[in-house]
Amino acid sequence: MTTSIPAPDTAPDAVPGTAPDAPFGTVPDAVPAPPPGTVPAPAPGTGHAPSHHGELLQGVFLDAAGRPCAGLVTLPVAEPGTRAGFTPRAGVPPETVEVVPADRVKAARAARLAVAVCAARTGRPAYGGVLRLSGGVPLGLGMGSSTSDVLAAVRAVADAYGLRLDAGTAARLAVRAERASDPLMLDARPVLFAQREGRVLEVLGTALPRLLVVGCLLGGGAPVDTLALPLPEATGADLRFYAGLRDRLRRAVAGQDAALLGRVATASARRAQRVLRQPEFAALDALARRTGAVGVQVSHSGAVAGVLHDPAVPGAAARAEATRRALAAQGIPHTRTFTTGGTNSRPARDFRTMRHAWTATDCSLH
C-alpha cells in the first residue's frame, strides 16, 4: 500500500506576529501597537546563520498524530555560514526590499515577511530597505545555502527591530519564504525535522556523538534543484524502514555511539540512491569500509557527502588521511576534514589535508 505525503497546512496570510501553533514552544502573540511617536524607528541590524553538511537521515516518518510526513536530520558544521545586514529606509514600503546579491530572492522574501512580524510585535514602523548577504556557503550542493541566507536575513531584520525571534517563528518564516527549510534555526541540536512544514517531529537528544568527517563531492559537484525532486511515497515498507532508523538514531544519540550513528547514516544514504543514483556512491561506500570508517553520509538533495570516522578510536587521524588518499584514487574531490557533534564543532585544522576553513572558492571544482 502506498500513501502520498500530504501537503503541509500553511497559512501564508496569517496575521503577522501571531502563532496558530507553536512546535518549538510558546510563541508570543502580537504586541499591541503603542501610540504613534512613542517608539523609535528600526535601526540597522545584523544576523548570522550556519550551514550543514547534508543529512544523516532523511525519509518518511509518522508524526505524533500518525500522519506520514517527510523529515530529516542534518549533520551540523561550524563553517561556512551567512552574514546578513538589514538597513531599513524610512518611507520605503515594507514590501520593497533590495537584496545584494540580487539573485537571493528567497532571502528578500524572508526579510519582507520578517518586517511584517517584527513591526506587529514591537509597534515600530514597517519599513523596507536594503538586505546585504555575505558568506561562503556553496550554492546548490545540499549544504543549506538558501536556508542559511533566509535565516540570516530573518535574524538581521529582527535585530533591526530589537528582537530575537524564537525558533518556531523563524522556521515558519523560512518555510513561507522557500517552501522547504533546513533546521538551522535550532543550531546543532539533533532533531528530526519536517522540512516542508517547519516543525520538529522529535528532539533526539542534546548532541550528536562526536564524529570526524572527511568531506567530498559526488556527481561532479553539479547543483541540485531541491524542490524539483519528487516527494517520497510512503509505503508501509518505507514507514517501517525509516521508523527502524529513527529508533536506532535515537539510541545512538542517547549512548553517544558513533558506530551506530554511522550505520544509520549509511543505510539512509543507500536508500536515497533509488532517487539520487550517484555514480560514485558505491565506490564511496566501499572505500569507507576499507579505511575503517563507521559509515558514510550524503546530502539527499545535493552533491556533498562525507566519510564518517569515530575520533575516539585510536588511529583516527591516520584513517582520515587514508580516506583522503582513497578519495583521490577514485577521482572523488575531497573538500574538507572537520569534527562535529559532542560539545562543540570545529574545522579539523590538525590534519595536513586541511589548512584553512573551506569556502566556495577552495573546493577543487569551484
Can you tell me about this structure?
This protein is an alpha+beta fold. It folds into two domains: 38-202, Ribosomal Protein S5, domain 2, CATH 3.30.230.10; 207-347, Alpha-Beta Plaits (2-Layer Sandwich). The protein is 30% helix and 25% strand. The protein has seven helices and 13 strands. It has helices at residues 105-122, 145-160, 167-178, 236-254, 258-276, 281-290, 316-330; strands at 2-4, 45-62, 68-88, 97-100, 129-135, 191-194, 199-203, 211-217, 233-235, 295-298, 304-309, 334-340, 346-347. The strands form four sheets. Strands 10-11-8-12-13 form a five-stranded antiparallel sheet. A four-stranded mixed sheet has the order 2-3-5-4. A hairpin with a 4-residue loop joins strand 6 (191-194) and strand 7 (199-203). Helix 4 (236-254) packs antiparallel against helix 5. GO terms for molecular function: ATP binding; kinase activity. Residues 1-53 are annotated as: Disordered. This is GHMP kinase N-terminal domain-containing protein. Pfam families: GHMP_kinases_N. Residues 119-180 form the GHMP kinase N-terminal domain.
In short:
Residues 119-180 form the GHMP kinase N-terminal domain. With 366 residues, the chain is of the alpha+beta class.
Rounded Rg: 21 Å
Bin the helical content.
Answer: 25-40%
Low-confidence stretches: 6-33, 345-366
Oligomer: single chain
Task: Summarize the topology.
Layout: E1 2-4, E2 45-62, E3 68-88, E4 97-100, H1 105-122, E5 129-135, H2 145-160, H3 167-178, E6 191-194, E7 199-203, E8 211-217, E9 233-235, H4 236-254, H5 258-276, H6 281-290, E10 295-298, E11 304-309, H7 316-330, E12 334-340, E13 346-347
Parallel strand pairs: 4-5
Antiparallel strand pairs: 1-9, 2-3, 3-5, 6-7, 8-11, 8-12, 10-11, 12-13
